[in-house]
Amino acid sequence: MPRVSLDAGDRRDAAPAILHICSIAFGRRHHPAFWRTVVSLNRHFRSIVLTRGRPGYFLQDDDPGDPRVNGIEILPPQDLRALKEPSVAASAARMLTQRHGRIDAIVGHLHSALWVLPLARRLSVPLMMIFHGGDANQELRAPKYAARYARLREAPAAFYVGVSQNLVDRLLEYGMAPERTFLCHLGIDLAAYRVPTRFESRPIRIVMAGRFLPLKGHKMAILGFAKLLEKFPDASLSLIGAGNDPEQQNYRMELVALAEGMGLGRSIRFCDSMPVEKLAEEFAQSDICLQTSIFTPEYGPSEGLPNTILEAMATGLPVVATRYSGIPEAVAHERTGLLVEQHDIDGLARALARLAADPELRRRYGREGRKRVEQEFDYLRQGERLAGLIRQMTSAYASLSPAECAAAWQASASSPASSEPGEDR
Description:
Number of helices: 14
Shape: elongated
CATH superfamily of the largest domain: Glycogen Phosphorylase B
Mean pLDDT: 88
CATH class of the largest domain: Alpha Beta
Structural class: alpha/beta
Strand content: 15-25%
Strand order of the largest sheet: 3-2-1-4-5-6-7
Order of helices and strands: EHEEHEHEHHEHEEHEHEHEHEEHHHH
Number of domains: 2
CATH topology of the largest domain: Rossmann fold
Low-confidence stretches: 1-12, 61-65, 417-423
Largest sheet: 7 strands, parallel
Distance between the termini: 30 Å
Number of strands: 13
């Protein structure tokens, strides 16, 4: 298959085809950031989506979501893990080209680097990997996965994208080529988030959204909130995010027991994960967004930039958060919110109390937060940037001589293999 360069002037009816591969099902209610990324790129390329079909973080069992987007070809879910086998990759390449025509590049999302390299080689196309969090932190060196990630370093003209600067730093430390490693933030559909009129006469409402896992720092949030109640006894805290995963459910039970043991049962509400539209309404009905991500030994550095922070800021919410991972890239201290150090319970309580006592400060930070999202995190703007990187990548791939390309593919295929026991991504 000839290598091609994607020209920004290509007509849409003859647009180059990008194959998106992800372990999570494609749909606005499965993984909103993955969904928005594909939609934003569909303005530039013909998009084909192949997933493993696993439900996303925010989907309710009785809510199938709406995966259909005009112009995007969505393939039936597959066992993507099988793609790491050369024979399966060869069959998949034939099927893709027969049914969908020429594929010009692959964009892998959320751990798919574990499987897609043989397929890229068979299609003879460049591969871009977008790293969101744990995949660019502990997984790169985990014995279970490290060998397959290492092969990415050898792939010809491969590009590596982190959604926050701390992830880019991890990729560079791992040995990804600096000239092919980039920052591209995830984006928000601003039209989906309204900035409401918030009433100052009612008690303060605080909201925190994120998976119920220790790395999100829920215990820190509860302890800091308990201290806030000493000054604002009518305040409330909503913790949103538990899915059906047993690990999350068990951790939720620990948190409920902690809150009840401290006498906070009437002040803290525990909620399951919810569709993005309902979560947006929760933000709109709240006064402060809380995000207390922390480093934990069992998970290591797992965060990029939590997408729920951007969604909250889009509704004009001021944010109180830990100074950790990619959070400071969105939450500008003393401008869009307040940052505290990890595990600083007293500092967290002071930050919450400062905002709770000052409606004008909340409004000012909220206005600045919305403006920052408009300027830096609009998904269409980020799609423009990502499209430019894809064109740059395919141009670099096309400039390689056949011998250079063959040598690089051979190097990526012959890197030390891993037995990867129990691989389940």
